[in-house]
Amino acid sequence: MAIRKILVAYDGSEPASRALEIASDIAKRYGAKLYVLHVVPLPEDYLSTYLYYPEMEDQLISKLIEAGRNLLEKAREAASSLSVDVETVLERGDPGKKIVEKAEQLDVDLIVVGSTGKGQIKKLILGSVSEKVIKLSSRPVLVVK
């Protein structure tokens, strides 16, 4: 299997940081291009707040997008320091779905995601991004603990 393009999902968490390290190492070894993706989730937890204060939605989303840009810049610097060809991508929506959609759009050969490490109860209720990516993707997925 030739690895020419790799997509790594990055949210700044410890598992995502390890995923970035491993994806960067693989990209360097294969001379592959690395895409670092951050997905700003739709803040569904605050939906009831928006019903009462809809003007807060734009402010919150703006802050989440700015935080995402800062995370991506740090990730780009880390990958670039290893002499990896890296491009950052910021999306908004459901993280699991967006990761798979972007992987298809970019025609990547490998998706790398961090394990969430959620507890069993929370995992059953919410599901995890890595599990959703595994279920939805037709491309190889590497989950990093």
Would you mind describing this structure in some detail?
Helices cover 52% and strands 20% of the residues. It has 6 helices and 5 strands. The model is unreliable at 117-122 (pLDDT under 50). It has a 5-stranded parallel sheet, sandwiched between helices. Helix 4 packs across helix 6 (129-136). It has helices at 14-30, 47-52, 55-80, 95-106, 120-126, 129-136, and strands at 5-9, 33-40, 86-92, 110-114, 141-144. The chain is globular, with a radius of gyration of 16 Å. By secondary structure, the protein is of the alpha/beta class. The chain has one domain: HUPs (Rossmann fold).
Which SSEs are present, and which pair or pack?
Blueprint: E1 5-9, H1 14-30, E2 33-40, H2 47-52, H3 55-80, E3 86-92, H4 95-106, E4 110-114, H5 120-126, H6 129-136, E5 141-144
Parallel strand pairs: 1-2, 1-4, 2-3, 4-5
Helix pairs in contact: 4-6
